[in-house]
Amino acid sequence: WDILGEGEVKSLAQLSTDHWNQHKRPLRVAIDEAGWRFHNLSDAQVAAIRQKVPEANPIEKAILWRVLKLMRMNIQPIFIFDGPSRPWKRGDVAGRIDWKKIDSLRKMLNHLKISHHRAPAEAEAECARLSELGIVDAVWTDDGDAFMFGAKVLIK
C-alpha cells in the first residue's frame, strides 16, 4: 500500500518513552479486546484448568499480567469490546460474543480503573475512530482494517 508507506518498527517500551518525552503524558492505547482474548487459552485449556481449580479465571489472569506490564511502561490501556451491530460474515454474525465470559474481564478492568467500552460494531473500527479523534495515540489489534478505518499507529 503506497498510501501507508514503509512504516517504522519500534519496541513498545521505546514508543512509550518517546511519547512521554514528547508529550509529557502516558501513551494511550485502544486495545481490541477480542484479539487479546483470542490469543490466549482455548476453551478446552480453560476447562482443563477449572477441573483442577474450579474458581480459576486463567484468561483474565493472563490479561491482568499483560495490563500490569503496560502500566509499568507508563501506557494507559483503553479496552474496546466488539458491539452488537457487527457485520455478517458467511451468513452469520461475525464470531458470536459470550457476554458472560466478558463480564468477569470487565469487572477486573473496573477494579483496576481501566477505561473500557463496547463499540457500536467492530472493535477495531472503534479503536481507529478513537485514534482519528486524538483520544488515543495508538491502536492494538491484529486486524489490518484498523488502517482503513483511520488508525495512524498500530501495535501488534
TrEMBL record:
A Pfam cross-reference name: XPG_I
Query: What molecular function does GO assign, one term?
Result: 5'-flap endonuclease activity
InterPro entries membership: PIN-like_dom_sf, XPG-I_dom, XPG/Rad2
Every copy of the XPG-I domain together lies at: 113-156
| Superkingdom as given in the UniProt entry | Eukaryota
GO BP: any one term: DNA damage response
What name appears for this protein in its UniProt entry? PIN domain-like protein
